[in-house]
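Entry for the shared binder. Reason: the reviewer on the internal report wants the predicted structure included alongside the sequence.
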Amino acid sequence: MPEIGATLREARMRQRLDISDVEAQTKIRAKYIRALENEEWDLLPGPTFVKSFLRTYAEALGLDARLVMEEYKQRHERLADQDLLPITPPTTRERRGRRAPGIGRDVLVAILVVALVALLIVLGRNGGNDDSSPSPNTVAGQATTSTTPAKEKPAKKPAAPAFARLRLVPSAPVWVCLQAAGGRTLIPGKVIGPSDHLPAYRSKRFVMTLGNGSVTLRVNGKSFDVPEVRNAVGYAIDRRGHRTVLSPTQRPTCA
């Protein structure tokens, strides 16, 4: 198979399409389309976006997207440095360093002795009291009844909601991969824009990867702005609407 970029460029020119035409059809920015045709992968946001843009561009030109993706993986994908590191068991010094500090045996024995002596002193004082002495609650030969304030019942915690409600409101084109609980894909790694009318999703948990900050998240009726990022940002949202930032290895790719 010839170079990937040349294949894309030739297919576009055979169909007499300008880059602006492809941009309008695929919602991929023109600078990224040129980077794909020139195989300038470093100008793209990241490997996840490279594969998504390649698939979208190839399908728009009527090419076999699967062959284009396989060619990219064989030529350009490499194992990450951390995947090449050997797995070694922890050394004896590391195992000793992980052992939590404990209380010495002598200190523990001393604490027990002091507690026992204190208990004997308290029992001795209670045993020396004269049972015939009048009770503090007895006045003029009549026993008074002490009143104990009623204990307040602890307030019940509100039950956790069964589902979280999520809606994405883009303000500009943004690449989105959105999955619900159980790995169910809701937005399969594509570019969405302000003209897309997206529904409100319901799930016990959401995980997502966003290409930039041009989108507002509405979770359980509350709006959250996504900060502008260079490469991508990922979130996990639970049924209460709590958000957790995901590390690059935890972000879904929808690939």
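Summary line for the report: Residues 105-127 form the longest helix (23 residues).
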